[in-house]
Write a structure and sequence with these properties.
alpha/beta, Rossmann fold, 3 domains, 6-stranded parallel β-sheet, 30 helices, 20 strands, globular, disordered N terminus
């Protein structure tokens, strides 16, 4: 990337000796914040007896969360405290009484486990980086508005953030030089509960940032390293936090500083806030502030990867720097494009916001003038028709125009995006519109339940966790005995049923439901019944309403006592999406219909704490988007790694994955939405009634669903390697990061 003017404080001094201080040598990542992490580790070590002092270093690197025995190690310190901590190891260590820590330090088995995990962490850092054009001194800088790396970090709202977490973990696994930039939302995304009428109620909880394994990046004088951006006519100061995910540092930008205006302190308060001016301010902090933070930390990335358009204003920050340095506009545009790549994630309008000039000017006008960008450049790059002053601007066209390579997140989404944004290149044929695709994947080890991993350890090579994209390796799943696979599936389902019961009791009590309905939660669900999951963001195009489109057929399926079916539903509607909230309420109104209360459960506040249990425990995952609005989807991939099967509309990733043997597909084709809904609901209930339910309950003499398990094995063998985050990252390297 071009050398750019440094804003804000001087980068922290960190020579080779400083970088080696405190432990892991290895291939060094950017030094900014490294000493701050080391000081935080040293402080936490003071609470620990010497034999287990390495727990402090383990706690300050989320690598433990996808390492064997990592979560179990902390859980075994005190299961109750571990739950109360929100699975935050720093909170746990600080909360445990000294007597308990001394007991653990005198347990040879526990001491050995700590040493082994610390050794793995050190060995991971010692690995050489993957060879290629991206090098440790010129890493990829990945900018994303949300980050879902772990449930104890509530910095995500849905699939975009969870994908970003999987990307970072895969980059660490591959030893790809990589940094991530996002925002530190002090209240995160909203929490959800339903009232007695079924209306969604939103509430927020402040994050105890001081209890997280994060360190504030400081300068050479140990004062917070800050950068500033002019927003709404005021200087907004931004501080930077560093969190470790294996080999990848995640830098989080935070405006909650006492030297900011009270309104500006709230810019990074909540994710996807409803106020459009505040969202624009967030985009300026992420894009312009993100680039300034990278500079101030002394990092010179090889390229900027914009994960969705929220960070697209970074292009203007870089253009302004080059123009102030004497470059011509044409030179500056070319240099920024040469070092920017872009992933677009959705064709839905809500993910591609338009802003009028009257909305933009009060928030970003002073910033534009500070960067000395011509108005025609600032506004026209985000328009379909440059020069049309009446046309609003959009961050997605800006990102597309300012990137050397752009991709969608599935093969179908790439085609949809080329058609959607074709007018940006009116001289090109549709097939030549410069938007490709790399289909999403999931971080296999994160999303595969420990019980399934333990089973596969018996049949796959010892290093299978580091070879998840190796297609041939997964053929060994065919050798797994049906009885062993079925036992694991039954155990995972039973665990989900227990979770559903416990949550249902709490949810019903909180809503003030009648005692009989609360008590019924103790009997809700059957650990041996076919268990169906439908969990995702509650947006209208996701079509949750199809489950009740033919209510009589749905109720008949729920009433079948010989071949029972039970359904778990979860998801949040955006606070301003009235139509989605109405969908939830209509579904909720059916809870007292015959068999509904005992065979269906809505699990409130779906998040990264609940999701692993849900995707592991269901037998069948439903995905019913209105084509072609599903860009990719990844929840079904997470189900597949656990031996669940998919029933999905042919959209997003399933258009590539469906082969007639790994699951079931609905070929949705009608143009009229009402007709399409009716046809797709009919296909859904036909498949459930005539194929899926009979297949699940077809048993051999040993009580095993042999043909069902054959599909499970086929699904796992074919889908896990094709839709792994490792495969996705290798696709990024080939398609985005290597120069053509």
């Amino acid at each position: 990337m071009e050398k750019e003017r440094t804003e804000g404080a001087d980068p922290p001094g960190a020579d080779r000796e400083q970088k080696l201080q405190g432990g892991i040598v290895g291939q060094e990542l950017p030094a900014a914040g490294k000493q701050d992490i080391e000081r935080a580790i040293a402080e936490l070590e003071e609470r620990l007896p010497h034999p287990i002092s390495s727990l402090a270093r383990i706690a300050y690197n989320y690598r433990w969360s996808w390492t064997q025995d990592g979560a179990d190690l902390f859980r075994d310190m005190d299961p109750s405290f571990w739950q109360r901590s929100g699975f935050n190891p720093r909170w746990l260590i600080e909360a445990l009484p000294p007597r308990r820590l001394q007991q653990l330090a005198q347990d040879p088995s526990f001491v050995h486990r700590v040493a082994r995990l610390a050794s793995e962490l050190e060995a991971d850092a010692m690995r050489s980086p993957i060879p290629g054009e991206v090098t440790p001194d010129r890493p990829v800088a990945y900018l994303c508005s949300e980050f879902g790396g772990h449930s104890s970090l509530p910095l995500y709202g849905g699939g975009l953030g969870v994908l970003a977490g999987d990307v970072v973990k895969a980059a660490s696994d591959l030893a790809l030089p990589f940094i991530a930039i996002s925002l530190f939302y002090r209240q995160g995304y909203f929490h959800q509960r339903l009232d007695s009428q079924g209306w969604q109620i939103e509430y927020w909880r402040p994050t105890e940032i001081e209890r997280l394994p994060a360190a504030l990046v400081t300068n050479g004088e140990r004062r917070p390293l800050t950068v500033s951006v002019r927003i709404r006519g005021r200087i907004v100061n931004i501080q930077i936090w560093r969190i470790e995910f294996g080999r990848v540092p995640v830098f989080l930008l935070d405006t909650d500083r006492i030297d900011n205006h009270p309104i500006d302190r709230l810019i990074t308060s909540r994710l996807y806030v409803g106020d459009r001016h505040t969202r624009l301010a967030q985009y300026a902090v992420l894009g312009c502030g993100g680039v300034r933070a990278i500079r101030a930390m002394g990092i010179e990335p090889s390229l900027i990867h914009l994960n969705e358009g929220h960070a697209a204003l970074s292009a203007f920050e870089r253009l302004g720097t080059l123009l102030l340095g004497g470059a011509t506009l044409e030179e500056a545009l070319a240099r920024v494009r040469a070092t920017t790549v872009f992933t677009t994630h959705t064709p839905v309008a809500a993910g591609n916001e338009w802003y009028t000039r009257d909305e933009v000017e009060p928030v970003l006008g002073d910033l534009v003038r500070e960067l000395r960008l011509p108005d025609s450049v600032f506004y026209d790059l985000g328009r379909f028709h440059p020069g049309n002053e009446q046309e609003p601007v959009n961050l997605t066209p800006l990102a597309l125009r300012m990137s050397r390579t752009s991709i969608g997140v599935s093969e179908k989404h790439g085609a949809v995006s080329r058609a959607m944004w074709r007018s940006l290149w009116p001289e090109r044929e549709l097939a030549d519109v410069p938007i490709g695709h790399v289909t999403n994947g999931v971080h296999t080890v994160t999303w595969m339940a420990p019980a399934m991993q333990a089973l596969l350890d018996r049949f796959l090579p010892a290093d299978w966790r580091t070879r998840t994209s190796d297609v041939a390796m997964w053929d060994a799943i065919a050798q797994v005995p049906d009885a062993q696979l079925w036992q694991v599936r039954c155990d995972l389902r039973e665990r989900l049923v227990r979770e559903a019961r416990e949550r249902s009791i709490t949810d019903r009590l909180n809503r003030g439901e009648p005692p009989s309905y609360v008590e019924a939660a103790l009997r809700v669900f059957d650990p041996t019944a076919l268990t169906v999951g439908f969990a995702r963001r509650v947006a209208t195009y996701k079509r949750l309403h199809l489950l009740t489109r033919h209510l009589d057929r749905a109720l008949r399926l729920l009433a079948d006592m010989e071949r029972p079916i039970q359904v778990l539903i979860a998801g949040k509607a955006h606070p301003v999406d009235r139509e989605a909230k109405e969908t939830l309420r209509n579904m909720f109104e059916l809870r007292h219909a015959p068999n509904v209360g005992s065979r269906t459960v809505f699990l409130e506040d779906y998040d990264l704490e609940l999701a692993p249990c849900l995707v592991a425990g269901v037998d069948l995952w439903l995905n019913l988007p209105r084509p072609p609005q599903e860009a990719s989807g990844t929840s079904g991939m997470k189900v597949a790694v656990n031996g669940g099967l998919n029933l999905s509309v042919m959209d997003g990733w399933w258009s590539e994955a469906y082969d007639g043997e790994s699951g079931w597909g609905i070929a949705s084709g009608a143009a009229d939405p009402e007709q399409q809904d009716d046809m797709d609901a009919t296909a859904l209930f036909n498949l459930l009634g005539s194929e899926i339910i009979p297949l699940f309950y077809e048993r051999n003499a040993d009580g095993l669903p042999v043909r069902w398990l054959a599909r499970v094995k086929t699904s796992m063998r074919r889908l896990i390697p094709r839709f792994s985050a490792e495969r996705m990252l290798r696709g990024y390297i080939r398609t985005l990061y290597e120069k053509k």
